TrEMBL record:
Protein species of origin: Odobenus rosmarus divergens
Catalytic site: 117 (proton donor), 258, 351 (proton donor), 372
Descriptive protein name: alpha-1,2-Mannosidase
Location(s) in or outside the cell: Endoplasmic reticulum
Binding site for Ca(2+): 475
GO-annotated biological processes: carbohydrate metabolic process; endoplasmic reticulum mannose trimming; positive regulation of retrograde protein transport, ER to cytosol; response to unfolded protein
Lineage: Eukaryota, Metazoa, Chordata, Craniata, Vertebrata
Superkingdom, natural source: Eukaryota
Length: 578
């Protein structure tokens, strides 16, 4: 399939008819304005409860009305909710929180943090808020978006993660100590998503700061995974980052793998990178050939393609939205409708659902208010206008309010069968679930801009266009303006400065040689070639592609830990006997 320039979400919306108000199968259509206000009220019930009971801890415990640190003591919910505030139109609170974060968040702490979670929630949240600051009325400093306090915070957080990438394979450890780097006894086993989910944030960071190290390590990690796929084109669930050997060999589109595929597509769109898209399309063929059955996606053995787990995981519900981004709308809708039947059965998506039995899997009956099915509904509604997608949004609002709402926020549903609750409200509830629900019911939101409006911004490197739409959501639903990646071309600017100096040098040389018998030929200056000389941007690109591989870092002297599990997902290990 030839690579085609993909139409960003905002522009796609202008090309497709939206049938707002069209009746659903039951003859009634959810009123977008009504549910938009319901979602906003839900957000503030959760957000205000966090501020009153949990701040400055990472997350709210809604049953006991207090807080706890979960992913690193960053006031994580505040970072994760920041861009949602602007999407809901709350400019004043956005401005206040920006000041609070600058005054209170410190990354120079002795804390073991998840490399994956810190990247998608903290680095992604800060980058998104930085790029939205001017729209939110924040007084930005000279040089924005190429400089700014939130950008510096994002860069500081990302630099704390870089030691994790210092492995023989270039694939990162899963955990890093923010003060000391990788602990000597850290396990080298990392999930696939924890290796391949950096290109959106790190490429954006490199583009804004001019430091290529972030994008470089993200690309190396992506390529190592690509090179580690099986002969039938599949990747496993967990891999040893020191040896490159697969430890958990179950292959699917769900937990432990999911956002790797997501970032190949979104990285391709964000960077207009044909190679990343070609990689995803090859994976997509293998996924269809070996894991897809009747528009469900199962787990299979990565080398043989035999079914290992006939289950649907709630995290897989992002897949229809991803399919919509590559234009595969028909398949996306069929899979979405399968997942929607599970929602209707339980009033939410259980973490694991046994497809042949049509019921939950023991000990995996919970629903932590995840966003993935709502995310897919938002994408597909923008692409099709099918009112069924609004019905999912309506059902989500009604279910979450009825089952999960408590005095201090919204609680994780521990068991969808009897509606028992758990004492946790994940930060992604405000970052993703509420955001995607609101955007589903708000067709006029600036995020859906079709390019008809934009802002022209003067930077130290020239004029650039921002806010024209086509936002790329990272896997924590933090929107990145793709145009911003073209605003801070430091390398190109330095190139022009060097070229000007070289012109002056050769002009001076010509003047000094006027009295020599042999005069220099006239004509436009051409830069010299050869080793150690200035070269054109094109040649620089070629040189970067041909540069030798970085020297491999010696193996860390940490013990190899036994790993006897069949499958490990997001830090939870499922033994063969479970």
């Amino acid at each position: 399939m030839p690579f085609r320039l993909l139409v960003p979400l905002g522009l796609l919306c202008a090309l497709l008819p939206l049938h707002h108000g069209a009746p659903g199968p039951d003859g009634t259509a959810p009123d977008p304005a009504h549910y938009r206000e319901r979602v906003k009220a839900m957000f503030y019930h959760a957000y205000d409860s966090y501020l009153e009971n949990a701040f400055p801890y990472d997350e709210l415990r809604p049953l006991t009305c207090d807080g706890h640190d979960t992913w690193g003591s960053f006031s994580l919910t505040l970072i994760d909710a920041l861009d949602t505030l602007l999407i809901l139109g709350n400019v004043s609170e956005f401005q206040r929180v920006v000041e609070v974060l600058q005054d209170n968040v410190d990354f120079d702490i002795d804390v073991n943090a998840s490399v994956f979670e810190t990247n998608i929630r903290v680095v992604g949240g800060l980058l998104s808020a930085h790029l939205l600051s001017k729209k939110a009325g924040v007084e930005v400093e000279a040089g924005w978006p190429c400089s700014g306090p939130l950008l510096r915070m994002a860069e500081e957080a990302a630099r704390k993660l870089l030691p994790a990438f210092q492995t023989p394979t270039g694939m990162p450890y899963g955990t890093v100590n923010l003060l000391h780097g990788v602990n000597p006894g850290e396990t080298p086993v990392t999930c696939t998503a924890g290796i391949g989910t950096f290109i959106v944030e790190f490429a954006t960071l490199s583009s804004l700061t001019g430091d290529p190290v972030f994008e470089d390590v993200a690309r190396v990690a992506l390529m190592r995974l690509w090179e580690s796929r099986s002969d039938i084109g599949l990747v496993g669930n967990h891999i040893d980052v020191l040896t490159g050997k697969w430890v958990a060999q179950d292959s699917g589109i769900g937990a432990g793998v999911d956002s790797y595929f997501e970032y190949l597509v979104k990285g391709a769109i964000l960077l207009q990178d044909k190679k990343l898209m070609a990689m995803f399309l090859e994976y997509n063929k293998a996924i269809r050939n070996y894991t897809r059955f009747d528009d469900w996606y199962l787990w299979v053995q990565m080398y043989k393609g035999t079914v290992s787990m006939p289950v649907f995981q709630s995290l897989e519900a992002y897949w229809p939205g991803l399919q919509s981004l590559i234009g595969d709308i028909d398949n996306a809708m069929r899979t979405f409708l399968n997942y929607y039947t599970v929602w209707k059965q339980f009033g939410g998506l259980p973490e694991f659902y046994n497809i042949p039995q049509g019921y939950t899997v023991e000990k995996r009956e919970g629903y932590p208010l995840r966003p993935e099915l709502i995310e897919s509904a938002m994408y597909l509604y923008r692409a099709t206008g099918d009112p069924t997608l609004l019905e999912l949004g309506r059902d989500a609002v009604e279910s979450i309010e009825k089952i999960s709402k408590v005095e201090c926020g919204f609680a994780t549903i521990k068991d969808l069968r009897d509606h028992k609750l758990d004492n946790r409200m994940e930060s992604f509830f405000l970052a993703e679930t509420m955001k995607y629900l609101y955007l589903l019911f708000d067709p006029a939101n600036f995020i859906h801009n079709n390019g008809s409006t934009f802002d022209a911004v003067i930077t130290p490197y020239g004029e650039c266009i921002l806010g024209a739409g086509g936002y790329i959501f990272n896997t924590e639903a933090h929107p990145i303006d793709p145009a911003a990646l073209h605003c801070c071309r430091r390398l190109k600017e330095e190139q022009w400065e060097v070229e000007d100096l070289m012109r002056e040098f050769y002009s001076l040389k010509q003047n000094r040689s006027r009295f020599q018998k042999k005069t220099m030929s006239s004509g436009p200056w051409q830069p010299p070639t050869g080793p150690g000389t200035f070269s054109s941007p094109e040649n620089q690109d070629q040189a970067r592609e041909k540069k030798p591989a970085k020297q491999k870092i010696p193996l860390l002297s940490c013990p190899s830990q036994p790993f006897t599990s069949k499958l490990a997902l997001l830090g939870q290990v499922f033994l063969d006997s479970s």
